[in-house]
Write a structure and sequence with these properties.
By secondary structure, the protein is α+β, with helices and mostly antiparallel strands. Among the domains are: about 110 residues, Succinate dehydrogenase/fumarate reductase flavoprotein, catalytic domain (Flavocytochrome C3, Chain A, domain 1); about 100 residues, Fumarate reductase/succinate dehydrogenase flavoprotein-like, C-terminal domain (Methane Monooxygenase Hydroxylase, Chain G, domain 1), CATH 1.20.58.100. It contains 14 helices and 24 strands. The strands form six sheets. Strands 2, 3, 9, 10, 11, 12 and 20 form a seven-stranded mixed sheet that branches. A hairpin with a 2-residue loop joins strand 11 and strand 12. Helix 2 packs across helix 3. The longest helix is centred in the last third of the chain and has 23 residues. It is globular, with a radius of gyration of 22 Å. The chain binds succinic acid. The site of succinic acid has 11 residues, from helix 6 and strand 18. The site of succinic acid (SIN) has 11 residues, from helix 6 and strand 18.
Length: about 550
């Protein structure tokens, strides 16, 4: 298993300007800010960096909302736990699910205390229904701008904290580890050049890798860099094969893909073909609100039919309510000449959320001492083989906060100190020519076609070989720009995703194999793990609770 060099570029920390902080948080989405604020509120000095501008995270694009029980009723918590486990298809960690669900109210209260406003009346929020939820429990803000409301609230709090420094446009090149394998900080490429930042603990909150796919609902930065850096630093990764495809993104050639929230279907929008035929109930009795993998495949099958010219979301019967409940979506449609009160909206599935990532415990600690992770970059055990809609903002709030507390304690026990570390980079130098744009486009097209919604062993074998070959070439040419660092990170994660998808010979959750179309608990109720220099291996799934009610049954 050739994973290349430990570091992406050659360096000597004695020759670099350096900076010390108690906790370094990489990423400015809900998980990153939650971690930073938890640590900063304890008096810990925190440096938060983001690859692009501070607001350029997926959090800000989240439309549907945040799933949380707000009525305090035991049955409501049990139902949320049940729905999460049901959608996760045997691979959630039930203890983590219960932990996150039961801590939701205190994190929502904290957001409100910091100034967030959710739709509805104080103490009686408006609740939406989304796929896989047995009852409405999704809080939303500004109609369909929940993520932006949460991001803005947390960013303002971070900007107002005397203990938080914020560095935008700062790229994580690599995590720095000492001779014992402990994470001591990071190599960061700032607008002023390369810096070593020494930290008592590092929290990765860099998001996922949905931009590895040609069709994606994500911000351009969702390229898996944090996962690749953690892999090089020796961290164990898990569940990379589980990529959630969202059924409905606005699909107009030449126009950036734009998510049409599942909450729109929750309000009653229908999926239809070009003749107006409603087809979702042909594959699942839950129709348009079946789990996302089911609905995405139903759309794919329609699009493959010779007699179907396209798939549309029909919300014309919702009338003017559409524009007041979903102002952002209505505006995006109108910007492209579509009036959702009169026109059907052309939609297709796209990669939306990546479940795999850095394995962490309930405190957010990874297998590398001193390294923590939270949010989409992590594999916490909350989502299993598929993620319940609107559970991701919740995960960022609860487990981001937890990682902030734990990293603060770790930094107190092991304060930052500058060290002399040297690394040899990946490439031989600027030899050969690499057309980065072409390779990036080819990689995303290949993953969409061969590692996408429906997979097959033959195509996956080809994908592993192709990506491995491209990765080898790109490494030999070597990185010298952020774009090339990102490309190498994308290739490293993509190869692991394809390898895991090839290895898992069953269908479960988001992972569908045409050659193994059935879930196989006897062989595959397990996780696939990855570590640099090792072939992928199997590890048992957490024990299920004694009696998980059958799908559809209420606990
Ligand atoms: C949506 O609004 O459909 C996305 C919500 C989510 O992915 O949790």
């Amino acid at each position: 298993m050739d994973d290349g060099s430990r570091y992406l570029l050659s360096f000597d920390t004695f020759r670099l300007p350096h900076h010390l902080t108690d906790v370094l948080v990489v990423g400015t989405g809900v998980a990153g800010y939650s971690a930073a604020l938890a640590a900063a509120d304890l008096g810990t000095r925190v440096l938060v960096v983001s690859k692009g501008e501070l607001d350029a995270s997926n959090t800000g694009w989240a439309q549907g909302g945040v799933a949380a029980v707000t009525n305090g009723k035991r049955e409501a918590f049990e139902a949320h736990v049940h729905d999460t486990l049901d959608v996760g298809q045997g691979l959630c960690d039930p203890a983590v699910v219960r932990d996150v669900v039961t801590h939701a109210p205190e994190r929502i209260a904290d957001l409100i205390r910091r100034g967030a406003r959710f739709d509805g009346e104080p103490g009686s929020p408006a609740l939406a229904l989304e796929g896989g939820h047995s009852e409405p429990r999704v809080l939303h803000a500004r109609g369909d701008a929940t993520g932006a409301e949460i991001r803005d609230t947390l960013r303002r709090a971070a900007q107002g904290s005397p203990n938080v420094d914020l560095w935008p446009r700062t790229f994580l090149v690599d995590l720095l580890t000492d001779e014992d394998g402990r994470c001591r900080g990071a190599l960061l490429l700032t607008p002023q050049g390369l810096r070593s930042v020494w930290a008592g603990a590092v929290v990765l909150a860099t998001g996922g890798y949905a931009q590895l796919f040609r069709e994606s609902t994500n911000v351009p930065g969702a390229t898996g860099d944090g996962i690749a850096a953690a892999l090089r630093a020796g961290a164990v990764l898990r569940d990379l094969e589980f990529v959630q495809f969202h059924p409905t993104t606005l699909y107009l050639a030449g126009v950036p893909r734009f998510l049409i929230s599942e909450a729109v279907r929750g309000e009653g929008a229908h999926l239809v073909d070009d003749k107006g035929r409603r087809f979702a109930f042909e594959t699942d009795p839950r129709g348009e609100l079946a789990p996302r993998d089911v609905v995405s495949r139903a759309i794919l099958h329609q699009l493959a039919r010779d007699d179907v010219q396209g798939v549309f979301l029909d919300m014309t019967h919702l009338g003017a309510r559409m524009a007041t409940r979903f102002p952002g979506i209505a505006a995006a449609c109108r910007a492209h000449g579509l009036d959702p009160t009169r026109d059907r909206i052309p939609v297709r599935p796209a990669a939306h959320y990546t479940i795999g990532g850095v394995v962490v415990d309930r405190e957010g600690a990874s297998s590398v001492p001193g390294l923590y992770a939270a949010g989409e970059v992590s594999a916490s055990g909350l989502h299993g083989a598929n993620r319940l809609a609107s559970n991701s903002l919740l995960e960022g709030l609860v487990l981001g906060h937890r990682a902030g507390l734990a990293s603060s304690a770790a930094a107190a026990a092991s304060p930052p100190r500058a060290m002399h570390l040297r690394g040899a980079g990946t490439g031989a130098g600027p030899e050969g020519h690499l057309d980065e744009e072409d390779l990036r486009a080819s990689l995303r097209a290949l993953l969409w076609r061969m590692v996408g919604i429906e997979r097959h062993g033959g195509a996956l074998t080809g994908a592993v070989a192709a990506v491995g070959g491209w990765e080898g070439f790109a490494r030999r040419v070597g990185p010298d720009t952020v774009e090339r660092f990102v490309l190498l990170d994308m290739l490293a994660v993509a190869r692991r995703v394809a390898e895991a998808a090839l290895r898992r010979e069953e269908s479960r959750g988001t992972h569908f194999r045409r050659d193994f179309p059935v879930r196989d608990d006897a062989l595959w109720r397990c996780h696939l793990l990855h570590r640099s220099g090792q072939a992928v291996w199997k590890a048992p799934a957490a024990a299920l609770p004694p009696a998980v009610p059958a799908a559809g049954a209420r606990p």
